[in-house]
Design brief:
- The complex is a heterodimer.
- By secondary structure, chain A is an alpha/beta fold.
- In chain A, strand 5, helix 8 and strand 6 form a beta-alpha-beta unit.
- In chain B, 43% of the residues lie in helices and 19% in strands.
- The longest helix of chain B is centred in the middle third of the chain and has 24 residues.
- Classes of the chains: A alpha/beta, B alpha/beta.
- At the A-B interface, helix 3, helix 5, strand 5 and helix 8 of A face strand 2, helix 1, helix 8 and strand 11 of B.
- The structure holds pyridoxal-5'-phosphate.
Chain lengths: 256, 398
């Protein structure tokens, strides 16, 4: 069993997102380590890009800060290796836009990511239509496919049927960012996806509180928390301590 | 999943967008393909181009400019005389008609120079659509008259403060709005850029420039031009005029990018001109030449003209450059400003700063050509919007 399959043995899983380099590289490594040790079952590790068109203001700002502090793919991969050295065993999925990966060299990127201890990739600007080139390189490291409320049935079927690792179901039409309530049609949406696949279905975009996470966790196999994680941890005096409380509060609520 | 039309231009183009937008691109492509087959649609579009835009735009012989340069005979395709003052209206109207067909009620647009924003606001007013225009705050300052025009036309102008506060960031925000409101909103993209089917749709709606210009050359001059010159921001006016001549193999096609403060300074928007700074990459849904740093972060660009100040170029131009069907060069801010003045003085035409880049190339080439040779320049827009910039740049020398 690989790390992703192991993580999904105890569902629903809690999947925070945090960008490397924010508020600075050292702190972000510590934050990710602490998230992992306090309830995160899988972490989406953010790679920064100058033009993050699927992200709302909070993640835009955080990744901008990371770039201003000189974050690069190379430094991000070294940070992943460091996390593995520190004993982090949960799956680490890289989430980032395609252009920096192209600039790094796709083959080299995948090879270096594997060596660093990365388990898979999420690339929001690489839909099914454009995925083949990258798919051909990743081997057993899944390129996580995204589905959206706008995906028509036929398309959903094609994407879900070929999905590996898990499916990232975008719960609302929009950019990343916390919403005040969980969208009404979510249960139906998840049911539609499940018709076509047996891989776990995880829901992201808009989940901001432990209570919402619990609610979504009752329907889905995993709950992705990005903006709330970045805002709460990044905005605090002591990010590492806050990360600990943050992870615990979500994990505890989801477990009871 | 396959597309109805080819999504790529050689290795360029494609659909690098979040999944949420894919269904909207598929719907748009279908609406466009259906509309192209529908005589009623074409009739309505052509009718508006004639009665509302004032097409065909004239072909003007630039007699004094030709004499002064002492070489080739120069003809201007007068897109500056199209309603709203630039070629952008052709595409904005075409897409707005598609929006009606798709039953959507709201459009969002990005704008750099403000010409596309004005064109979108105009088309939206004409067809009863709600219109929101995203514009970088740097561009809002340098193209202020167009901001007022958009507001007068009933559009909401939303300043963009993120990133470099120019066209690239306005596109990011327009896409973010689109992804959020995709159910009732169309993204009225203003250049031959972005994900498929936009580069194809925009070229088709702008092809009227090339079709008219070719007919006018044959009718009024009795021959085709030796060289066709256009400025290249995203590439819509250039692809529009080039498309009329692309099958005439002996007609040379020349695109002019923004050389800014000079390629060597790094402060420019010459995607093809800078071997060190531009590589093939992916931005705003398309794979093409992109000015970027080593790490794949999109570069800050610079041009005196807001409409050319963008880090990427339309994918079809990338293909035409590789195949050498078209040739691309650049003009600096200084060259564009002096071309601007020369056209004002010799022809009584105040061109847009974007178009002045094409005129700058004419000034370089015409003297080296014979008197029986002919250059056609696409004068993409008029310069009223640029008076603030020009007065600041030229200052005392005016
Ligand atoms: C007058 C004029 N010409 C040219 C351009 C550049 O765009 P494109 O390359 O798409 O023609 C603009 C863009 O704003 C413009 O306003």
């Amino acid at each position: 069993m690989n790390r992703i399959e192991i993580a999904f043995q105890n569902k629903p899983i809690f999947m925070p997102y945090f960008p490397l380099g924010y508020p600075d590289l050292e702190t972000s490594i510590d934050v990710i380590e602490v998230l992992a040790n306090n309830g995160a079952d899988l972490i989406e590790v953010g790679l920064s890009f100058s033009d993050p068109l699927a992200d709302g203001p909070v993640i835009q700002k955080a990744t901008q800060v990371a770039l201003e502090h000189g974050i690069t793919i190379r430094k991000s991969l070294t940070a992943i290796a460091e996390l593995r050295k520190r004993g982090v065993t949960i799956p680490l999925i890289l989430m980032g836009y395609f252009n920096p990966m192209l600039a790094y060299g796709l083959e080299k990127f995948v090879k270096d990511a594997r060596e660093a201890g990365v388990d898979g990739f999420i690339i929001p600007d690489l839909p099914l239509e454009e995925a083949a080139e990258f798919q051909a390189l990743v081997g057993d490291m899944p390129l996580i496919q995204m589905l959206a409320p706008t995906s028509p049935n036929e398309r959903m079927e094609t994407i879900a049927r070929n999905a590996r690792g898990f499916i990232y179901l975008v719960s609302v039409t929009g950019v990343t960012g916390a919403r005040t309530s969980i969208s009404e049609g979510l249960a139906d949406l998840i049911a539609r996806v499940r018709e076509h696949t047996s891989v776990p279905v995880c829901v992201g975009f808009g989940i901001g509180t432990p209570e919402q996470a619990k609610e979504v966790g009752e329907m889905a196999d995993g709950v992705i928390v990005g903006t709330a994680c970045v805002r709460t941890i990044g905005g605090s005096e002591n990010p590492v301590e806050t990360a600990k409380e943050f992870a615990k509060s979500f994990k505890d609520e989801m477990a009871n | 999943m396959s597309t109805l039309l080819p999504p790529k231009f050689g290795p360029y183009g494609g659909q690098f967008v979040p999944e949420t937008l894919m269904p909207a691109l598929i719907e748009l492509e279908k609406a466009f393909v259906d509309a192209q087959k529908d005589k009623g649609f074409r009739k309505e579009f052509e009718g508006l181009l004639a009665s509302f835009v004032g097409r065909p735009t004239p072909l003007t012989y630039a007699k004094r400019l030709s004499e002064q340069l002492g070489g080739a005979q120069i003809y201007l395709k007068r897109e500056d005389l199209a309603h709203t003052g630039a070629h952008k209206i052709n595409n904005a109207l075409g897409q707005a008609l598609l929006v009606k067909r798709m039953g959507k009620k709201r459009v969002v647009a990005e704008t750099g120079a403000g010409q596309h924003g004005v064109a979108s606001a105009t088309a939206a007013a004409l067809l009863g659509l709600e219109c929101v225009v995203y514009m970088g705050s740097v561009d809002i300052t340098r193209q202020e008259p167009n901001v007022f025009r958009m507001k007068l036309l009933g559009a909401e102008v939303r300043p963009v403060e993120s990133g470099t506060k120019t066209l690239k960031d306005a596109i990011n925000e327009a896409i973010r709005d689109w992804v959020t409101n995709v159910g009732d909103t169309h993204y009225l993209l203003g250049s031959a850029l972005g994900p498929h089917p936009y580069p194809t749709i925009v070229r088709e709606f702008q092809s009227v420039i090339g079709i008219e210009a070719r007919e006018q050359m044959l009718r009024d001059v009795g021959r085709l031009p030796d060289t066709v010159i256009a400025c290249v921001g995203g590439g819509s006016n250039a692809i529009g005029v080039f498309s009329g001549f692309v099958d005439d193999e002996h007609v040379e096609l020349v695109g002019v990018e923004a050389g800014g403060a000079g390629i060597e300074t790094g402060r420019h928007a010459a995607r093809f001109g800078d071997a060190a700074g531009a590589r093939v990459g992916v931005i705003h849904g398309t794979r093409t030449y992109v000015l970027q740093d080593e790490d794949g972060q999109i570069a800050e660009t610079h041009s005196v003209s807001a409409g050319l100040d963008y880090a990427a170029v339309g994918p079809e131009h990338a293909m035409m450059r590789d195949s050498e069907r078209a040739f691309y060069t650049s003009a600096t801010d200084t060259e564009a400003l002096s071309a601007f003045q020369m056209l004002c003085h010799t022809e009584g035409i105040i061109p847009a700063l974007e178009s002045s880049h094409a005129v700058a190339e004419v000034i370089k080439r015409a003297p080296k050509m014979r008197k029986d040779q002919v250059i056609l320049v696409n004068l993409s827009g008029r310069g009223d919007k640029d008076l603030n910039t020009v007065i600041t740049e030229l200052g005392q020398n005016l």
